[in-house]
Amino acid sequence: MAVVDLYYIEDDPNIAFIVKEYLEQKNFKVTLCETLAQARQVLKEHVPTVVLLDWNMPDGHGDSLCQWIRRNWKELPVIFLTVRGDCADIVSGFRNGADDYVVKPFELEVLYSRILALLRRTGNVAEQYLSCDGIGIDLSRHTVSCHSEEISLSEAEYQLLLYLMQNKGRTVTREKILEQVWDVNGSYVNNNTLTVTMKRLRDKLYRPKCLKTVRSVGYRMEDTI
Fold this sequence. Notes:
- This protein is of the alpha/beta class.
- Helices cover 41% and strands 24% of the residues.
- It has helices spanning 13-25, 36-45, 62-72, 87-95, 108-122, 155-166, 174-182, 191-204, and strands at residues 4-9, 28-33, 50-53, 56-57, 60-61, 78-82, 100-103, 129-132, 135-138, 143-146, 149-151, 172-173, 211-214, 218-221.
- It has a five-stranded parallel beta sheet, sandwiched between helices.
- Helix 6 (155-166) packs across helix 7.
């Protein structure tokens, strides 16, 4: 099985360590978050394969994070892992967007099996999302969002943003951008077209700090928060 990228939002370090240690033996890459704020930050930087989420957190309730996830990544699998086992709590969890609900205490083998069962149904939906500092692309829907607001882009603007995000963390030259965004589609344009398209893209995305100009070379997108 390929490595499964999992985010676990849990403020109890003992439970978090036990789950992390067990799942990492099963070829999972586990990122722990002790607060909802920390979880939001790492989700903005990278979308995992699956999320495990506790309900009672130091800075709020897990249902608010689940709702936020659903607004931004509709198919991202979320499993509640919580002591709140009343019928009303479980129903509320599902209504707020959970795909499964596991009540503590639980058997690690059962949790593992339920994660696998969920992933068999959903696949690795993380592959359809690209993100950088709150800017997101949903590849399957061909849509772009900026801090949960859907942004309307022209095809050239979309392809420019897509290419930059596919190369996040790397500087790409203006020549390479012209080649990959325009030339491969048979539209041979000059440097001025790229400059104008970049300006329009930046304006529509509220001039994000993560989209940087590398003087005399090109551009780079990288997480800054």
